[in-house]
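R.M. (postdoc): so does anyone remember the format we settled on? I'll just put the structure tokens first.
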């Protein structure tokens, strides 16, 4: 009996040994213990935020053999694979769509592992147990269902549970195609598209704004203060709140992940007016957070797209994920790629309707991806 699998849920990551968690999920930056713990310690997730930690742990005897970052969600903000229409349909029927169980990286639409499994275990056995536990937990919480957001394609194939739907969406990423520098990258563009990018960059250069790229170890308290001011100002203007992530979270990010942090700043007459915070891991650069104290045409494209591509080319990185949404990325050389989700709905009336919706969505997203490829700026054959 000591070798039997058992599962439990914990409401605080401090209940788990960091080394044990990272043994299962530490190969991806955004599922590492200290990244997820920073969200909890800074109260970015918790009861007040509507993201209640409810992580799933699987043990064989006393050994942790699987783990899943999991949250009880009281809304659908900060997810980026949208289900607002499902919530409205529930409301129209006088039903509660929330709470729901969600496995995701809060506020971050990054593809990666959602279930870490010890290499000594049979993945099919773990997935079957976890699927059963998630379904039972949704029932005990009277949750509308379960969602796994942005698992990678290989993991998605493991989720073959009955009555679980699949979803996909499009995001835009840059991939290194052998270019040595930004000029060679633009050399792949059609003439008109290349002129557009050059014009955007020249117009900004004419303003006299200067740029600097800093690694995490080089950042001072003044740099972090400037970034947070830019980040909160932009969120306040756009959404009426200072952002999902607090200054405390960014301080913890600096403490635990300095080697992964890249900050690009824009200065006007020596004063920082905009910042873009990136994280890098392996051969990939992730564009995450941006903000500006004043509106300058083209500044967002420069800090969040063009300088990110230049950085990848200089550092030998092969992939740049600038974040979700934004078809305007296509004209700037970011290619469409699929991202995925899966889950289940408990209500017997809504489950087949949502499954049908997801099937139709799957086809529509496939067609949209084909259309997006036609809009890429590259010359024929590139």
């Amino acid at each position: 009996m000591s070798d039997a699998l058992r599962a439990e849920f914990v409401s605080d990551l401090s209940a788990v040994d960091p080394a044990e968690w990272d043994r299962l999920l530490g190969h991806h930056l955004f599922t590492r213990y200290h990244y997820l713990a920073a969200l909890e310690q800074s109260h970015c997730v918790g009861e007040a935020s509507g993201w209640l930690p409810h992580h799933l742990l699987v043990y064989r005897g006393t050994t942790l053999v699987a783990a899943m970052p999991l949250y009880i969600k009281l809304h659908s903000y900060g997810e980026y694979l949208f289900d607002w229409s499902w919530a409205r349909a529930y409301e129209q029927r006088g039903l509660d769509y929330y709470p729901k169980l969600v496995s995701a990286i809060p506020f971050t639409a990054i593809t990666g592992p959602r279930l870490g499994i010890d290499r000594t275990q049979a993945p099919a056995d773990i997935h079957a147990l976890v699927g059963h536990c998630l379904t039972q937990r949704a029932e005990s919480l009277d949750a509308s269902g379960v969602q796994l957001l942005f698992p990678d394609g290989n993991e998605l194939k493991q989720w073959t549970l009955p009555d679980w739907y699949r979803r996909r969406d499009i995001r835009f990423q840059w991939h290194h195609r052998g270019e040595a520098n930004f000029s060679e990258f633009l050399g792949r563009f059609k003439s008109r598209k290349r002129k557009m990018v050059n014009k955007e960059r020249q117009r900004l250069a004419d303003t006299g704004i200067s740029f600097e790229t800093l690694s995490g170890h080089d950042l001072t308290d003044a740099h972090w203060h400037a970034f947070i001011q830019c980040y909160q100002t932009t969120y306040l203007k756009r959404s009426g709140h200072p952002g999902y992530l607090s200054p405390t979270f960014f301080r913890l990010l600096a403490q635990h992940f300095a080697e992964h942090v890249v900050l690009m700043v824009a200065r006007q007459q020596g004063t920082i007016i905009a910042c873009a915070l990136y994280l890098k891991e392996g051969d990939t650069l992730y564009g995450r957070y941006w903000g500006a104290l004043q509106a300058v045409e083209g500044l967002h494209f420069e800090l969040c797209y063009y300088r990110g591509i230049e950085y990848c080319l200089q550092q030998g990185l092969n992939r740049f994920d600038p974040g979700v949404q934004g078809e305007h990325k296509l004209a700037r050389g970011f290619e469409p790629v699929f991202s995925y989700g899966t889950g289940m709905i408990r209500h017997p009336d809504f489950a087949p309707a949502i499954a049908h919706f997801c099937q139709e969505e799957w086809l529509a997203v496939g067609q949209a991806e084909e259309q997006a490829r036609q809009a890429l700026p590259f010359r024929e054959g590139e």
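R.M.: ...and that's the designed sequence above, right after the tokens. Also worth knowing: Residues 350-374 form the longest helix (25 residues). The CA atoms of residues 103 and 148 lie 5 Å apart.
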